[in-house]
Every structure is written in C-alpha cells, then in structure tokens.
Write a structure and sequence with these properties.
The chain is α+β, with helices and mostly antiparallel strands. The protein has one domain: Bira Bifunctional Protein, Domain 2 (BirA Bifunctional Protein, domain 2), CATH 3.30.930.10. Helices cover 37% and strands 21% of the residues. An 8-stranded mixed beta sheet has the order 1-5-6-11-10-9-8-7, sandwiched between helices.
C-alpha cells in the first residue's frame, strides 16, 4: 500500500501531466474499457467478462491499452489526443507488474517516432523537475552489438542461443523451442537492459518481427519504427510511428492469432472497428504508452509497484 506522501505525489504527477497537455492544446479523451474485440498479441492475456443485457450479450474484453479506440478517434478527425486510464492484463503480477495499472497514452498527427521522443523528453523535464535533454538514443542493433556482441538483424536462433550461453543464460527454462524473438527478448532483458545504467535511454528501430503496431522503415525493411524508453533498467514507455495500412494491420492480427493457436491459446476476435478506421484514413501519426506507476516508482525511489498504488485489487 502506498504512503500518504506517495498518494499526494501521484495526484501531483497526474496534475502536471494534464497541465503539460493542456498547454499544448492536446485534447484529453475517455474511451471504453470494455470491447467486443480482444488483444491478439500472444504475449498479452486479456481479462474477460460476460455481458447479459440488451443487444444479445456475449463476451467482452477489458482493454489492455486504449490504443485501438483512440485510433478510431484520430481517424474521425480528433487531432492530437491523450488519455490517462486504468488498463488490465491478466497473469501479470510482480515487482514491476500488476493486473491493473495506470497508463498514459497520447498521439501526435504529423509526428514521427523521433519527434515524439523529443516531446517525451519535454514531459520528463516537467514532471521530474530536472533536465533530461541528454537522453541517449541508440538503435536496437547498436545495443546488441555493444552489450551482447551480436548483430540481431538477420541472425538465426542457433547464434542467439550461443550468445545467451556465453552470457551465462544456457540453463533458462522453457527455451528449448525458442524463436529468434524469444532469444532476443531474453538477451535484452537479462544482458542489455542491466548494462544500460541508471540514466534514461531510448532504444529504437526494433526488428520488423517485433513491430507490433508500428510501420516498417522505408529505407531498411529489417526494422520497424518503434522505440522504448528505459530508466534505471525499467521500461517506462513504448512508442510507434503508427501503422496506417488497414490490409497490413489485418494480416498482423491474423498472424498473431495463428501464433496463439500454435501456442495452445484461444484465438480472439479481431477489432474490425479499428480496421474500418484505418480504411477510412488514419492520419500519419506517432503514439506512445507510458507506465505511470513505473514512472512514479522511479520518482519515489521505490522498487515495487505495490508501494505506489493505494490498494491491491487481488488481496
């Protein structure tokens, strides 16, 4: 449970965030927490509930991010928008994870991911009360070569496994049938992130296989225009130069459902409302999700998400 001092700091942080966006004429929005569509990402587990009222009833999914709904607003002409909300992910509990947590998400039409990184720096300057303009920006390829000694672009699973073994990770449970991305995630988490140090670092140009909802780089199809922000070994933000191609987005959802099936997971209904929004014309834009609880952990100097939340939802 958070202390009263921490609760006051949380309230102040939320006020500062709203002031930041108000000064930039970015509209605060609220979107539904429930949807008839699920998140097809095989690495994310959605909470479900049954709706029994008028309209036929059926399964509804608690959102794991407000992204899909916010993109529908962007396609409808909202302009720059942001949202502060609770999001929900099943099976996630630990020092940095909770099944419900607070997310800040915002979108900037006519921005690319580099311009959005600039704005994140401005926000951090405001809420942290100290200059952070010197945040390093390194490509995914750079950090792998520098800290793990391997180029992650075009490499095979056997080479990544050998790299992991050289760094003392040869006995990791559940890696017998690991994919290239599985090995990259392991090396990133266990080797690279601890080596980044305490200062903020942007890592960008992730492999195209880890694009999520980011567009592929026009000049180098091996990478996607995606970035993450790490501070003191903690992932704080995940952002994209957003994919606007409806056909490609549907293909990605379908591919994720195939991966879910191969992993023994249920396939989930695709968000056809998002696809329709993309077909109608999503503006060129960049978007980012920021974990407010993790940011507050860093500000308060605590190492557990439970120390910055008022009450636990599962105790």
């Amino acid at each position: 449970m958070a202390s009263l001092e921490t609760l006051r700091k949380r309230a102040e942080l939320l006020r500062q965030i709203r002031t930041f966006f108000y000064a930039r004429n970015i509209l605060e929005v609220e979107t539904p927490a429930l949807s008839i569509s699920g998140n097809t990402d095989p690495n994310i587990v959605s909470f479900t509930t049954n709706y029994t009222g008028p309209g036929g009833g059926g399964t509804l999914y608690l959102h794991t991010s407000p992204e899909f709904s916010m993109k529908r607003l962007l396609a409808a002409g909202s302009g720059a928008i942001y949202q502060l909300c609770k999001v929900f992910r099943n099976g996630e509990l630990g020092r940095q994870h909770n099944p419900e947590f607070t997310m800040l998400e915002w979108y900037r039409p006519e921005y690319n991911h580099h311009q959005l990184m600039d704005e994140i720096v401005e926000l951090l300057n405001d809420v942290l009360g100290e200059p952070t303009s010197a945040i390093r920006r390194l490509t995914y390829q750079q950090v792998f070569i520098e800290h793990a000694g391997i180029d992650p672009l075009g490499v095979d699973s056997a080479s990544l496994k050998k790299c992991a073994q050289l760094h003392g990770l040869e006995h990791v449970v559940g890696m017998d049938a690991a994919s290239i991305d599985d090995w990259c995630d392991l090396i990133m988490d266990q080797v690279i992130v601890p080596a980044l140090g305490k200062q903020p670092v942007f890592i960008y140009d992730y492999p195209a296989s880890q694009a999520a909802l980011a567009r592929i780089n026009d000049n180098d199809p091996r990478v996607a225009e995606r970035f993450e922000l790490f501070i003191d070994g903690v992932e704080i933000a995940n952002g994209f130069h957003e994919l606007t191609d409806a056909k490609e987005q549907r293909q990605r959802f379908e591919s994720e459902n195939i991966k879910r099936q191969q992993a023994g997971l249920a396939q989930l209904p695709i968000d056809n409302n998002l696809i329709a929004a993309l077909e109608s014309g999503l503006p060129d834009c960049a978007g980012v999700a920021v974990g407010i609880d993790r940011l507050l952990m860093l500000m308060m100097g605590v190492d557990s998400i439970s120390a910055v939340t008022a009450l636990s939802s599962i105790e």
